[in-house]
Amino acid sequence: MRAFAPTLADKRLLPQGGTRLTPWLIGVLMFVAVLVGAAGLAIANAAATVARGAEQRWSIQLPGGGGQALAAAAAARQANGVAAVRPVPDEQVRGLLRRWLGDEAAGADLPVPALIDVELRPGANGEDLRRRVLAAAPDVSIQPFSEQLGPMLRGLRTLQGLTFTLLVLLAAAIAAAVMLATRGAYDTHRSTVAVLHGIGATDEQLAALFQQRMAREALVGGSAGAILALTLVLLMLAALDSGTAVAVGGSPLRPLDLVMLGVLPLATGLLALLVARVTVLTALRADP
What we know:
Layout: H1 8-13, H2 21-55, E1 57-62, H3 69-78, E2 82-88, H4 90-101, E3 114-120, H5 127-136, E4 141-144, H6 145-148, H7 150-188, H8 190-198, H9 203-239, H10 242-247, H11 255-262, H12 264-286
Antiparallel strand pairs: 1-3, 1-4, 2-3
């Protein structure tokens, strides 16, 4: 922990004055990073929930209506690995169509397909279900929910990849800010560095002075930004109603997700320590 808490002697060798903009900049970047990370984790949880639900559910569609519904449902119940077979009521199907067709969907003249929802037991692959249903009703369309929800899952994974890219860019911005701040501090104290070098201080010892300062500032700024962002995230989670929680399969963020977001300031401090060390060692080797 000495890297984050310089001694009094270290402070005297390298005064801690300056503009103090680095902690503020890192705090702002960390605030954004925690919000982006929370969004990415929520999207990943939502995609996993949708994928789990879609794997075990199949949809049987009878374009001609319910004429073959009884035969298809009976065949589905006899298939291996089937946990439940639920014919969808005609009123519910018309209610779904009403969103696009309006009140005309409720008219008796509009033929609507019959739908049967099938749930498989974990590990069942659905091939026996497909074979039996097609043998009993050749005109039906049967497919897993994973095929129907494929575009949505691909969209969620694309958003997840985008959030990961943004986190990488934010980490690069933090590293760049630390590098510039370290180089500025080194240039400001170049005469002090030369004196210490002249009395026998090694490059490693001099680099430690700067990396302690940068790591501490990054930890302070990152912690402040993370606390503000986590407070906002918790307030948003508390504002979710029960219907939203059920729709996404529970809370969008799990306790482990919040722990992962909470350790980001420590990771930022370690990143700042490494970047500052490399920056100072590079500058020392470049000086005559």
